[in-house]
Design a protein that fits this description.
It comes from Halocalculus aciditolerans. This is Queuine tRNA-ribosyltransferase. The protein is an alpha/beta fold. The protein has 8 helices and 8 strands, in the order βαββαβαβαβαβαβαα. β6, α5 and β7 form a beta-alpha-beta unit. The longest helix is centred in the middle third of the chain and has 17 residues. It is globular, with a radius of gyration of 17 Å.
Length: 239
């Protein structure tokens, strides 16, 4: 599994690899902070409050493309926390209505990155997956409250593995990312359910290395490491 850390530093990433060497460790950047460490990373949209700044996000995507040592594993499209309907309405509007300075749809011009759309409570999963595919998503970011994540997580992972992504080939599938597992137990749960990646602020912020030790113990127990257990490099996620 791939773990992304908010505020990642080279020193903390080294410690993370020591505690969970079977997994890949990288950074989660936002429009507010993006440091050019040569590690796997994704770009979140920064929509944590009502005051989302579009220009900052687009500037961050441009920086990710031209200034970072490698391209991001994926970017997260703008979303409305806890509201699936509002999230899809927002993305649909950005594809089909809102135009940039060149007169093109804002999100349609970002096809140079793998793009994840956030899933939230409020709509049936069938509808959310259909709409994600219609928008051309490469993966899904499982947001929403922890209780909803736990109740729907296994089903979301199963559906993502079953569905073809943009009809590229029969073996294609949507990748699945979990936003904030919340605890060591939540991290182990995400691994066992089959999430491709997670992000967290707590491990580095609180030096909660026990979370990673629990994850490594679960990996040793199951002997079913994910494809990302090649610690050093990106493998199939390279672009």
């Amino acid at each position: 599994m791939r773990l992304y850390y908010t505020g990642a530093s080279p020193d903390n990433l080294r410690k993370a690899r020591q505690h969970a060497p079977s997994h890949v460790h990288g950074a989660g950047w936002t429009p507010d902070k993006m440091t050019p460490h040569d590690v796997p990373f994704f770009v979140d949209n920064g929509a944590f409050t009502d005051s989302f700044e579009w220009e900052s996000w687009f500037d961050a995507l441009e920086k990710a493309k031209v200034e970072m040592p490698r391209l991001p594993d994926f970017i997260v499209w703008p979303d409305v926390h806890g509201d699936a309907e509002a999230t899809f309405e927002l993305c649909d509007r950005l594809f089909n209505v809102e135009l940039n300075r060149e007169g093109r749809a804002l999100l349609a011009r970002r096809r140079d990155f793998d793009r994840f759309i956030a899933l939230h409570p409020g709509l049936p999963l069938d509808e959310q997956f259909d709409r994600a595919l219609s928008l051309g998503a490469d993966g899904v970011f499982v947001g929403g409250p922890s209780r909803w994540q736990r109740s729907r997580g296994a089903e979301i992972v199963r559906r993502a593995k079953d569905v073809g992504c943009r009809g590229v080939k029969e073996t294609s599938r949507l990748r699945v990312h979990l936003g904030n597992p919340g605890s060591a137990e939540g991290l182990v749960w995400a691994y066992r359910v089959g999430f491709d990646s997670v992000d967290t602020t707590s491990i580095f912020q609180n030096q909660s290395w026990g979370w990673l030790e629990a994850l490594e113990a679960a990996t040793d127990e199951t002997h079913t490491p994910t494809p990302d257990t090649a610690q050093a490099e990106l493998g199939a996620w390279s672009t």
